[in-house]
Hints:
The protein is α/β, with parallel strands linked by helices. The chain is 39% helix and 15% strand. It has four helices and four strands, in the order E-H-E-H-E-H-E-H.
Amino acid sequence: MLKAELVQKLNGVYLITDHGNDLVPRVSAAIDSVSAVQFRSKSHSTDEKLRLGLALRQRCQKRGKLFIVNDDVDLALQLDADGVHLGQEDGDPAAARKELGAD
């Protein structure tokens, strides 16, 4: 779910990150070709997620791209993400919309 005012910016190619090495440089190399970056981090520590997420968020802001966090409303709030992707077992979408101001 995206903040309502940003929905129209989501079009074209949408990048979802992996867990590989050199994540930030690889995303930086691809960022001009996408409309959004979804930060998906299943194996990083909490500190590493925050560090990587901040770096990716900065790059997205600088290039005018949407930044979306996968499965973690709290991390999305900490990173001031444009939205969050929630799977079926990742929490209540209505509560997430309210927390993120995505109504």
